[in-house]
Amino acid sequence: MAEAYIVDAVRTPVGKRRGALASMHSADLGAHSIKALVDRTGIDPGAVDDVIMGCCDTIGSQAGDVARTSWLVAGLPDHVPGVTIDRQCGSSQQSVHFAAQGVMSGTQDLVVAGGLQNMSAIPISAAMLVADQYGFTTPFAESPGWRARYGDVEVSQFNSAEMIAEKWDISREQMEEFALASHQRAKAAIAEGRFKNEIAPVTLEDGSVFEVDQCPRETSLEKMAELQTLLPGGRIHAGVASQICDASSAMLIASEQAVKDHSLTPRARIHHLSVRGDDPIWMLTGPITATKHALAKAGMTIDDIDLFECNEAFASVVLAWMKETGAPHEKVNVNGGAIALGHPIGATGTRLMTTMLNELERTGGRFGLQTMCEGGGQANVTIIERL
């Protein structure tokens, strides 16, 4: 089978809610990572076959195929198309999958894959907020087919996170310890400059340069113990959940022929890619079954993987996944996760993969596995091999 290579990867620093990137138009936000990627690789932008960007809540500044407009805003050639995709939290990870599949099929040679999200400008699940005006909590809740299959059970990520904590016997205290470790790891990574190679600094309207992730907090177990739970009598609270934020990220995926033709030096190879569905009411358990499926398909075990990125939508999600797969915490989200660094939904997939690639290079690891829970009870898994 033909190979798909990661030539380079870049991201913006992550801006906290109403932070440094809050006023940046979504197309400009996406354009920043795309332009930085083109500049870093030195690739002829006219040779790119497609631009695939993940983005959820494609309304307002994110409407109108924001992948295409981001490319154009970056000042790049008109003839290169773009497409925006939505696989919920896994949108930009799916962008990499589609890009790699295009290359592996032989129909494309160079594809930009990435994602963007300005959550300050477009609130999370904005479409659902609109739906609320019409008396239902989710856009699909009034579907007769949906109700016939799943009944009137409320579909909620908060409910799912609580259900997972209960089923896998994960206490509030365990989740708070995990969350604290995420912040400590992220702050250590920032202090050591581990993210510098992957971040394309942003010059803001006031002329200042934004180049350091804003989300890590000064927190403690004592502070988190005082937080009110999101659901009455529950265990989940804001301190053990991912943060709302703004960012974009992008990767260049290339065929072996493109690597030769353009004198490129790949940094990694796509070793495996897959996506699986799970119970949509449980919603956030997808990474468990998807990881087991991916390892079996790849002929690998959990011990073959040097680094893991499992998105920290909620602490309970990752803790349950670690229990089920046997992935050791010392190899999981070693530079912090979404609890500390934020979860800019459409951009998170390629943000995580960019960080994982750089960390494999820093530590000399060979294989990295990335997965994340996604709306609808889905999960992507990508295994990359450092070259």
From TrEMBL:
Residues forming the catalytic site: C89 (acyl-thioester intermediate), H343 (proton acceptor), C373 (proton acceptor)
Record domain Thiolase C-terminal: where: 265-386
Record domain Thiolase N-terminal: where: 5-257
Enzyme class at the top of the EC tree: transferase
GO MF, one example: acetyl-CoA C-acetyltransferase activity
Record keywords: Acyltransferase, Transferase
CDD domains, per database record: thiolase (cd00751)
Enzyme Commission identifier(s): 2.3.1.9
Keyword Transferase in record: yes
Source superkingdom: Bacteria
Family stated for the protein in its record: Belongs to the thiolase-like superfamily. Thiolase family.
Protein name: Acetyl-CoA C-acetyltransferase
